[in-house]
Specification:
Two copies of one chain form a homodimer. Chain A is an alpha/beta fold. Chain A has an eight-stranded mixed sheet with strand order 3-4-2-5-1-6-7-8, with helices on both faces. In chain A, helix 1 crosses helix 11 and helix 5 packs parallel to helix 6. Chains A and B meet through helix 2, helix 4, helix 7 and helix 9 of A and helix 2, helix 4, helix 7 and helix 9 of B. The complex binds adenosine-5'-triphosphate (2 copies) and magnesium ion (2 copies). One adenosine-5'-triphosphate (ATP) sits at the interface of chains A and B.
């Protein structure tokens, strides 16, 4: 069956897009059939995978019921990774979708045929840095939330907001199957105490909900998007590429154990 | 007169909050009477200046017309810097305010008495990482937008979105006085080519709209918020503190020249 994972955190700049692109590429390298859905009007996952945003080519129309998600799928530069791109107008979806009946479940509705066809093993959804209608729709439709967090103070402060929301959506009935896929520590800088302190704090509170893999700060990860390629293509032997390959292996192992 | 500056960028994690807190503290150090307004439901500027968010204590009620902004002002740990804190419920304001007449100008309305009283030389508004109702209200009420940008590819990609919006708000009549205070480059890492490339690109396109001061990546800036103090108190002699003092001096000089 297809596993749908929303990569979400309302804190900005924590590595959501970097994780979606590079985890997708490394999971594909390890044989998983991958689909990325870019739900952020910034279109970063779209450009990071080598596409240019196009008007009318995003989930926006599928959320309104005017288009099927399947017709919006495009190949990317990464072998084995397809994408539903984003467009700037996606920002307008927040207002349009909010006015619809069952506004929280428009994404789940658009996703249903893709789940039934089971063409993909894993779908990764890149969410914008907010808990607005788009992110809420992704969480209401997903099997799990993967929560990246920078090893910084503000990111730590905001972590309980998103983890409590996941619990509320599950226990309130909006999405009874929603669980935490894992909390992923990103931009870990071994030279600072702050990173080590944040890591220790997160493992203390969240235990095995935290991925064992930690993504180090690595300039190759921030250079790759300007070349429109994932890091396992742009810099195969970088610490960033190794870390996301390790994460992909751990992700598969955790899915198998469920 | 009081100058109101919205610190905004829809890209997440570019240093909006870090700039609001440390520029406010350094401007106060140089004699300016400062007010910070935290408009982000993440409450980062509130905690970074030593306060805990409290229910009912945010601009939310003033946007609905139920409370005056003046009654919401509190002192902070930084000498000469007051704040209107944020609260988690501010996220709900997006929906409530959207339903009101003149929804784009609720902030300007709440600000009018503060402008008239002229108790402050500068008001800095910390915006959330989106172009939703809260950020639009801040831009509609402000004299200028200060736009922080990390020296990274995605931040560069999104810069034209916010600069075009400023032009549209001014020329479309929503805020005829709105200009760009300046584009501020943050988290500059001298060891990487990427930082230098992004800086060169920004100066090429935006010329003297770009602050001469560049904020370096400095771990003291990311440690300071966990102590609830601005960097000029937490680590007076750090490169981060010097950079924000330099920025404050440049800010005053640019305001004088207008
Ligand atoms: N491990 C890393 N090492 C170095 N740079 C990184 C790393 N992860 C992400 N970056 C860079 O940090 C910035 C923020 O990352 P990214 O854009 O993926 O975060 P995000 O959470 O998707 O941001 P937003 O909240 O705006 O959607 C980007 O410029 C990215 O290239
Ligand atoms: N110059 C710097 N050097 C090192 N760390 C920095 C610097 N500026 C900001 N930071 C850290 O980077 C992270 C992002 O900065 P900050 O939270 O100020 O950005 P933001 O734009 O306000 O984010 P958001 O979009 O979530 O509101 C924070 O953890 C902050 O402490
Ligand atoms: Mg992103
Ligand atoms: Mg902020």
């Amino acid at each position: 069956a297809t596993r749908v994972v929303a990569v979400a955190n309302q804190k900005g700049g924590v590595g959501k897009t970097t994780t979606v692109i590079n985890l997708a590429a490394c999971l594909a390298e390890q044989g998983q059939r991958m689909l990325v859905i870019d739900l952020d009007p910034q279109c970063n996952a779209t450009s990071g995978l080598g596409l240019s945003p196009e008007e009318g080519l995003s989930l926006y129309r599928a959320l309104l019921g005017e288009q099927t998600a399947r017709n919006l799928i495009r190949p990317t530069v990464a072998e084995g990774v397809d994408i539903v791109p984003a467009e700037l107008d996606l920002a307008g979806a927040e207002v349009d979708v909010a006015r619809m009946d069952g506004y929280l479940h428009r994404f789940a509705l658009a996703l249903a045929p893709l789940r039934a066809a089971a063409d993909y093993d894993v779908v990764l959804v890149d969410c914008p840095p907010s808990l607005g209608i788009l992110t809420m729709n992704a969480l209401a439709a997903a099997d799990a939330a993967l929560i990246p967090i920078q090893c910084e103070y503000y990111a730590l402060e905001g972590l309980s907001v998103i983890t409590r929301l996941v619990t509320r959506l599950r226990e309130g009935g909006a999405n009874p199957r929603l669980e935490i896929e894992g909390i992923l520590m990103t931009m870990f800088d071994g030279r600072t105490n702050l990173s080590a302190q944040v890591e220790a704090e997160v493992r203390k509170h969240f235990g095995d909900k935290t991925f064992a893999t930690v993504i180090p700060r690595n300039v190759r990860l921030s250079e790759a998007p300007s070349h429109g390629r994932p890091v396992n293509q742009y810099a195969r032997d970088s610490s960033g590429a190794f870390a996301y390959r390790l994460l992909a292996a751990e992700f598969i192992q955790r899915t198998r154990r469920r």
